[in-house]
C-alpha cells in the first residue's frame, strides 16, 4: 500500500522512540499487507535488556537479531511449534525494544482473511490475538526484517487520520511468566477484536 490523500505511511522517526511510547500511539493505525488491512487495537511493549519477558533480555541471538537492528522493521518469531507472532522494532539500533501486535479489527480483505480460517464462525475473531493476526495476514518468518517504512516486502503501517484513543486501556501483558506486573499492554477499549478484555 502506498500513501494516498487519505493515508500516510509512518516515518522512521515514529518508531525511533521508546517502545512504551510508540505502543499506545500505534493504536488505530492500519496494518496493511496487499488487500488485507486491519486497524491495530491491541499491542504490548517489550523493552530489551531491562525486561525479563523480552526475547532480547539475554542478548542477541540468531532468532532475535532483527530486534537489535534499526527501528521500523518487523520482528517475526515462531512459537509453540505452530504460531507466528509479529513485533514492530522501536528505539535506537541496538536497544532491542519492540511492540507486539496483538489484535486488529478487519478493515479490508475480509474474503482473503476468511480463506485463512475457513472454520472460524465470527469475523471479529480473525485477527483476535497475535497468532491469528499473523495467519490472517499471511505473515511468517519470511517477513522477519521487513521494512515497514519503505514497504520493501509489501507490508506497511499507515495513518488514515484516526487518532489513537485519548485514554487507551492499560494493563498487564498476556501469556508471559516474567515481569507480569508491568502495565505495558495497551488497547482500544471496547473493541470486539481484543484478545482479552481491556
Task: Describe the protein in words.
There is one protein chain. The protein is of the alpha+beta class and about 200 residues long. It has a single domain, classed as 3-methyladenine DNA Glycosylase, Chain A (Roll), CATH 3.10.300.10. The protein is about 15% helix and about 30% strand. It is built from four helices and nine strands, in the order βααβββββααβββ. Strands 1, 2, 3, 4, 5, 6, 7, 8 and 9 form a nine-stranded antiparallel sheet that branches. The two termini are about 30 Å apart. The N terminus is likely disordered.
Q: What is the gist of this entry?
A:
With 198 residues, the protein is an alpha+beta fold. The protein has helices at 12-15, 19-26, 110-116, 130-136, and strands at 8-9, 30-33, 36-47, 74-79, 83-90, 97-108, 155-159, 169-171, 185-187.
Based on CA inertia axes, which overall geometry fits?
A: globular
- Structural class comes to alpha+beta
Fold-level CATH name: 3-methyladenine DNA Glycosylase, Chain A
CATH class: Alpha Beta
Question: Level of helix content?
Answer: 10-25%
